[in-house]
């Protein structure tokens, strides 16, 4: 069965075909080209296996080089063409989908090994021929001389014609022979290079094992080694090479020479350094980027005992406005100028500035005394931003908010440090910007907790972590329970029971308040139905009503009215059993579009209560246009009534509000009633209902029913 043309075996045969066509014209063999190709196929397979092997084995390359000599490919052009063919086509046809850069490097090492194997085998063959010649010297002196000359000529031609640098030295390091490629790599004459000793070629970037491997080789303890090594040229420039050094032994197996094969990798290394620079530096500003910064920060945090670090996290204030008004090109020019100024602020040893992205920059300082250094660094940064920046003829004022984190090395991870700096920077921005703040562990913990709660909110409702407590609404005239306000709680797995002040703002910020509010509304209405069913046999003053809070986000949601109607119909509860509480601040300046859903609900019979009345700045005359039937007076007006006698000014204010509300046919509910004196005073002033700890704290629904039964039975 033949292999598929595009399969691995087919590609391998294709490589062998190309190889045979390149080498066959310069091969001294009686075989036909197809027969020669058949000889090369197992060699090609061995190269392919060595290329893809888990660990590199140079023996495969040397064996292939030796096999070429055995196949009578002893012409110097044969080795040159073979190396060219392997360089151009081995990775292409046999590399598969692996790491191309790594495969190219391994291919180069295979070429070195092939050349070493070829040179060694050819030399051994030459020595063997010389020995044969010596044995036959008495019989055919002229023939021996001719054979010796031919073998030496072949070796010399291969040595000189190789594309890679080749040098031979004795075991003391004295250089005996070098080829033209090696002379060109170093840019010196043959005499100059041969006057050097191998041990003189040290370089500061030598790997730690370089000279240990060399010593082991010349002692005969290893056959070869391979590494990357740098050499100084006479003009002071650096030559980087892939170096393979092999040990050559004499006929008795004793070490005799060392053979070095060098590939010039200087340009490749410069390219890699350039790619590394581009990967670790910001393309716009030239500053180190996030990757480089994290490397430096990780190194600073891993420093020894007694070392500290200081970090300034900078975010420009109002940069988005500049981008939106002047365009991104102007914003980029502004960032470049800011980067230049920041760079000039961090010139001391141990200091660096990096751009993390957008308009976010970070400055790092390290050393034993960063407590003082980081404050000075932040001050220099703030001063550097004082002068306006000229962009497109406009003088732009730039300000920034900085979060500072400072501490000993070894206590926190880079991610923890950057998170603390980010939180602190936003604290500086929230305080008005154009300032710097020091990290506060307690503030960090609160911010991290808020973030954790925000991320946990979406699934908390699905997991049933929310529950509702109810606080009674009591009629001030007869003390009867008329209803209750529904107050949602979150039973968090880690933080326990959380009040609405901890998570309602987060839910509003993320938009999750809409499904949460819908759930609270449905649960509360169902509870109101249960109360009315249980209330049937008691002589109560009236059916219990449920008050549910609406957030500003829910007010603007298009499904508010329909959701409410669906819930009332689904539970079989009349609209008059429901009161929706809306804060006064949510209705300040409300237009008709915002009020339309509330009017529709009010027309259905749902009561609308204006919550926290008195905390906003609404015109009292606006009460006429709002579809409300109840005013809930904020507790700030009644706190002074907890003591007797009450503040006469507060009494006048409450009396006026109650009088105004009643004149507009509005009932008045008071929050935060905590003492009997307070309740009596509010009753005298004409308030209708009240709620507070004086009557009952928020609790489970069955407790409210018990209170209602007590009122009904006397």
Task: Please outline the helices and strands.
Blueprint: H1 8-23, H2 33-52, H3 58-70, H4 76-94, H5 100-135, H6 141-161, E1 165-170, E2 175-178, H7 180-186, H8 190-194, H9 210-218, E3 224-232, E4 238-249, E5 255-264, H10 266-280, H11 290-301, E6 308-317, H12 319-326, H13 328-345, E7 351-357, E8 360-367, H14 370-384, E9 389-391, E10 394-396, E11 399-408, H15 414-430, E12 435-438, H16 441-460, E13 466-475, E14 481-492, E15 496-498, H17 500-510, H18 513-534, E16 545-550, H19 552-555, H20 560-571, E17 578-583, H21 584-587, H22 592-604, E18 607-613, E19 630-633, H23 648-663, E20 667-670, H24 676-684, E21 689-690, H25 701-713
Parallel strand pairs: 11-12, 14-16, 16-17, 17-18, 18-19, 19-20, 20-21
Antiparallel strand pairs: 1-2, 1-5, 3-4, 4-5, 6-8, 6-11, 7-8, 9-10, 13-14, 13-21, 14-15
Helix pairs in contact: 1-2, 1-4, 2-3, 2-5, 3-5, 4-5, 4-6, 5-6, 12-13, 13-14, 16-17, 18-20
What does this protein structure show overall?
The protein is of the alpha/beta class. Helices cover 50% and strands 20% of the residues. The protein has 25 helices and 21 strands. Strands 13-14-16-17-18-19-20-21 form an 8-stranded mixed beta barrel, surrounded by 4 helices. It has a 5-stranded antiparallel sheet with strand order 2-1-5-4-3, sandwiched between helices. It has a 5-stranded mixed sheet with strand order 7-8-6-11-12, with helices on both faces. Strand 20 (667-670), helix 24 (676-684) and strand 21 form a beta-alpha-beta unit. Helix 2 packs antiparallel against helix 3. The longest helix has 36 residues, at 100-135. The chain starts with 7 loop residues before the first helix and ends with a helix. Residues 136-145 and 537-541 have low confidence and may be disordered.
